[in-house]
Amino acid sequence: MKKRALITGISGQDGSYLAEYLLSRNYEVHGCARETMNQTSTNFLNQVIYHKADITVEDVFNKVIDQVMPDEIYHLATGHEVGFTNVDFFKTQSIDVQSTLFILNAMKQKYPKTKLFYASSSRVFGQSKNYPQNEKTDFAPVSLYGISKLTSQNLIKLYREQFGLFACSGILFNHESPRRSEFFLPRKITATAARIKYGLESKLELGDISAQRDWGAAEDFVKAFWLMLQSNLAEDYVIGTGQLHSVQNILEIVFSHLQLNWSDYVVLNTQFQRPAENYKICADISKANSQLGWKPEISFKSLIIQMLEADLVKAQSALGSKK
Q1: Looking at domain 4-175+215-239, what is its CATH homologous superfamily?
Q2: 1: exposed, middle or buried (Cβ count in 10 Å: 0-12, 13-18, 19+)
């Protein structure tokens, strides 16, 4: 009998890669989304059972859980990430905190054998003085997003310890893919550079190009999500690469691949700088490696070039449509 999985946030990059991975492992995959999915966005959609529902409304969301009766829930839906303008804190809280509580209560009351994965964020570490960060590092969020993620993470821990639920959080460091929104920096760089190559744009505006992050591949990360729910014990894990790369590193890889000089096109703009995030944040993935046998497989350079190649195809198509 197939295992049934319910994925919230299935329309995002993690949701799509996770759905594909679970389908490859013979799962019956259900996806929860507020809007009807675009049936041509990826090649797996006709194999997923969709439930149109607002996860911030408890009765509506509980009906979905009752219909699916999942063996595993992957709670990936999230509010606004740091760096977006006009952040709606109450909406972020509804998505990140209330929906988590709805799931935990449903598990406690009706589905105690269901396993839950929650997608937390490295933003919970904020300006932590410890480096690199692991599961024992003190949390010090400096954003509304990080506070919301930490609140849900604490709820997960509370229900796990007090009610014996199999609920765990993945503390996820930055992870990218060709399916990532252009609101996120690496994808902004690859997409804009591709358009520059085809003459569709002339410059790329960035903030601090010396800023460093631990960037991994979404395809790698979703395998860790699954492994966490196959473990005998529910625990929280830091998921990242353990390597720091700067924004300039991305520029060098991208423009070198395009045979262009990045300094001819990049314009520094202070409005894109984030003073509250002037710190190093890098994952210590020792626990995930030793207990789950997980480690990233896609290199940083391969990831960036993969994203760039996908954006070159889009830019070439856009150029053709203009002719």
Answers
A1: NAD(P)-binding Rossmann-like Domain (3.40.50.720)
A2: exposed
**Count of Cβ atoms closer than 10 Å to residue 209 Cβ:** 16
Q: In CATH, which superfamily holds the domain spanning 182-214+243-281+299-322?
A: UDP-galactose 4-epimerase, domain 1 (3.90.25.10)
Q: Where are the domains of the chain?
A: 4-175+215-239, 182-214+243-281+299-322
Q: Which helix (H) or strand (E) holds 190?
A: helix 185-197
pLDDT of residue 40: 39
Give ∠ CA 305-15-240 in degrees, rounded to 5.
55
What is the per-residue pLDDT for 112?
97
Burial 234-264 (b: 16+ CB within 10 A, else e): bbbbbbbbbbbbebbbbbebbbebbeeebee
User: C-alpha dihedral over 214, 215, 219, 223, to 10 degrees?
Assistant: 0
pTM of the predicted model over 0.90:
yes
The model's pLDDT over 127-174, given as tens digits with 9 standing for 90+, comes to: 888 889 999 999 999 888 899 999 999 999 999 999 999 999 999 999
**By CB neighbour count within 10 A (0-12 exposed, 13-18 middle, 19+ buried), where does 230 fall?**
exposed
Could you give the strand order of the β-sheet that contains 237-239, starting from the edge strand earlier in sequence? 49-52, 28-33, 4-8, 72-75, 115-121, 166-172, 237-239
How many other C-beta atoms can be found within 10 angstroms of the C-beta atom of residue 163?
Answer: 13
Q: Which residue is it, tokens 């509580």?
A: 101
